[in-house]
């Protein structure tokens, strides 16, 4: 009887151990399988990422190549444009030279070249308005006094030509009494040298500026008077 009891106990113990071992192996196998599946999944994700990265990289390489091609094309066009602009500048410079040479030649024939300007001295007298029109006909303006040096030179020219009394200057106060402005640009005169007591606007009709030869300075006179005049244009 005792033997059977001991045998039964041994059998029970054996079964318990066997079951426990089987259960442990199964659990281990299951864990391994889960881990492998996880790894496979992660590898798939990684592979997808690598594929996407490759696609993006290829696209970038293509874009960069296109940009480099564009830059090369642009460089060629810029170089071509620079050559054209250089050629154009040379042409413009030559045209300016020709024009200046022509202007100087014309000036030497009909006027006097002084300090980069051409002065055309009238051989007849005219009203202020007609004198201004005559100057505009040759693309010039009535002379104004720019500085003392020019005034002195003009004074000499007037006397050499036998000019009498007055010579028109391109200034008027017809818009605002007492305020003489340039008729060429409507700005205040750069230089003034009024004879003492002038401008006096005698009888309220003196609105045009003159150079008074006898008194060597500026004066105001009636615009309808007729005097010699000088047209001036830049030839530089
Ligand atoms: Ca006067």
CATH class of the largest domain: Alpha Beta
User: Superfamily at the CATH H level of the largest domain?
Assistant: Mannose-Binding Protein A, subunit A
Strand content: 15-25%
Determine the CATH topology of the largest domain: Mannose-Binding Protein A, Chain A
Separation of termini? Answer: 144 Å
What small molecules does this complex bind? calcium ion
CATH architecture of the largest domain: Roll
The averaged pLDDT comes out at 89
Q: Which residues form runs of ≥5 with pLDDT under 50?
A: none
- Rg is 52 Å
Describe the structure in your own words.
The chain is an alpha+beta fold. The chain folds into 2 domains: 1-110; 114-234, Mannose-Binding Protein A, subunit A (Mannose-Binding Protein A, Chain A), CATH 3.10.100.10. It has 3 helices and 8 strands; from the N terminus they run αββαβαβββββ. The protein has helices spanning 2-110, 128-137, 148-160, and strands spanning 112-114, 117-121, 141-142, 166-172, 181-182, 206-212, 217-222, 230-234. The strands form 2 sheets. A 4-stranded antiparallel β-sheet has the order 1-2-8-3, with helices on one face. The protein has a 4-stranded antiparallel β-sheet with strand order 5-4-6-7, covered by helices on one side. Strand 1 (112-114) and strand 2 form a beta hairpin. Bound molecules: calcium ion.
